[in-house]
Every structure is written in C-alpha cells, then in structure tokens.
Write a sequence for this structure.
C-alpha cells in the first residue's frame, strides 16, 4: 500500500470545537471536463474546493466566508488564476454564499453521483 501525504484538508477551529472544514487541491472532478469555465484548464494554476462544510452551531457567523477568503489567499500566494467548486443543484444557502463572495455560476453538469440521488451540480469559478 502506498500512502501519499498532500496538504489538502483544512479545519477551521472555534474556541472548543471544529467550526468548518474543506479540502483544497489542484485536481478536478472528472465531470469538470464537461463544464464551461472562465479560465484555461491548467490545474497547476487552479485550485478546487471540495466538501466545504460549516458546523450547524456556526451557521451565519461568517465561517464560510472566512474559509473562502483563506482559500483565495492560499491560491494567490501560489499564483493561481482561479478557484473552482461545485454545489448540488438546489443547495440555495451554499449558492448564495459563493455568489456573495464573487464566484460566478458557469454551468450545470452531472458528476456521476446519480446512484446517490445527486443528479446535477452547479459549477462556480472565481477568477483571482
């Protein structure tokens, strides 16, 4: 078995518990190839945010906004041109957060999770 360590999982800590978490990497979902994007598809210069989650005790406290700011700061330090992410179609609170933080809806695709009842995903990108 090979185990590869990559800096990818980030945790936002509150005073006594985890406030949020997300994964940040240079690897797209397979279905991203079917999307229309604002920048070229060179993932050496693009970060993808996966599984951004905020603990219910910290909703509407700015944790999601701070997570996105941190991701953008990290990407800019590495001279990335954009950040991409996807959200299950119909997750209105998440979509409002992304739009408020300057992410643009670029399309809707299947990411292959139909067996789990997840048919369509909205794609978002923020050019840095």
């Amino acid at each position: 078995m090979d185990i590869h360590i990559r800096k990818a999982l980030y945790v936002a800590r509150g005073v006594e518990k985890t406030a949020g978490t997300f994964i940040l990497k240079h690897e797209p979902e397979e279905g991203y190839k079917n999307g229309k994007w604002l920048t070229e598809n060179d993932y050496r210069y693009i970060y993808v945010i996966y599984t951004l989650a905020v603990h219910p005790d910290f909703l509407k406290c700015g944790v999601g906004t701070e997570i996105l700011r941190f991701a953008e700061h990290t990407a800019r330090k590495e001279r990335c041109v954009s950040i991409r992410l996807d959200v299950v179609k119909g997750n209105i609170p998440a979509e409002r957060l992304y739009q408020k933080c300057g992410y643009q809806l670029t399309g809707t695709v299947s990411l292959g999770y139909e067996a789990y009842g997840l048919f369509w995903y909205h794609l978002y990108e923020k050019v840095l």
Notes: The chain has a mean pLDDT of 94. The radius of gyration is 15 Å. The beta strands are 9-13, 18-25, 46-54, 82-88, 104-109, 121-127. Helices lie at 63-77, 92-100.
